[in-house]
């Protein structure tokens, strides 16, 4: 295993391209396996005899809730792991361990709180998110199981992210890949073998989340980690938490805004296309997620490199990591655009054989996926500001695509174009947001160049 000193020298001295590849590939593999799990999970649900179309629509209703859960899970995890990387870049191992312990504590607290809230208000929340009398059963069956695991899902994900932050991305990815492969085995067993239906899909997910939590926690307590999860640090210290939240706010807002967008989109889809339009969007977003996941992997890989080098005042290396990441992201998403143009029937057919749902989804994906390559710039541009600790700017830029630009478009365009307006709102938001983010990045690069000269 790589020692702390070796990791530190590597992040400071190795070629940036090599580092981006080294740190991104394990994350990309983990994300792709996760994406495959999501795809297969929804494909199994969509293939349930006689109820598949409504079941996948019910799953679509849960997306706002899932993204809110993800906002806390991912946001706090990224805030913690980025703080760990920055503190290690500064050579401060003690503060890095405090960040680790505080991240674990706050994720555990939030997980328990969300589990309790869902125990009392889950049905009301799902109706608010767009469930109908036809889809509420499937939504309830899925989320009631998922929320039982929130108390270990959140801290487990945070610990896995911290493994990457301390400089061991291969192990973090190995854990994710193992967990997701296990899920692929458990899903058909629970869904069809035990006849549990959509509850079986949720149970498989929760079991795998528990595996991640136990494995990651063991690594930081009994394993060969550079940092240790110490009992004295598992508490909420205001100074440490403020540092975590300052960075977490960007990812939190990105994830939370995604949940808000799912909520609004579900309501607009239901208005213009009914329950099956929600199912069509679930299939479309699942397909796009296959191509987004490698970009998220790149963002995770480059975050540690950018955060470390920025903390070490090597601004040019931080900028180079972003540039390399963007080239890779645009390339991957361009392949996604080509695939959705050439093989839409095959891609949609993974999720449904229902003729009505298929027709809705084919029309939707032809419009919704037009600007896939631009999404890479939007995602990585905001992540760059997050990685250098500029929380305010990263929050604003992350909200551009998902909230500030998108919401007016999805509320106005469908009034003119009907359901096609719902599909068109996102690509228009992507174009506008990309132009704005590029402008802010150019401005930041100029400032960083001046800073680098002052430190020489």
Task: Give a brief outline of the structure.
The chain has 456 residues and is an all-alpha fold.
Feature tags:
about 450 residues; mainly alpha; globular
Give a structural overview:
The protein has 456 residues and is mainly α. The chain has one domain (10-455). The chain contains 18 helices and no strands. It has helices at 4-13, 16-46, 52-61, 63-89, 93-128, 136-146, 150-165, 169-193, 198-221, 238-273, 275-311, 315-342, 344-349, 355-368, 372-387, 391-404, 406-417, 419-455. It starts with a helix and ends with a helix. Mean pLDDT is 85; it is low at 1-7.
Mean pLDDT: 85
Low-confidence stretches: 1-7
> What is the string of SSEs from the N terminus onward?
HHHHHHHHHHHHHHHHHH
Q: How many structural domains in the coordinates?
A: 1
> What fraction of the residues are assigned to beta strands by DSSP?
under 5%
Count of β-strands: 0
Largest sheet: none
Q: C-alpha Rg, in Å?
A: 21 Å
Helix content: over 70%
Distance between the termini: 34 Å
Question: Structural class, judged by helices and strands?
Answer: mainly alpha
Number of helices: 18
Shape: globular
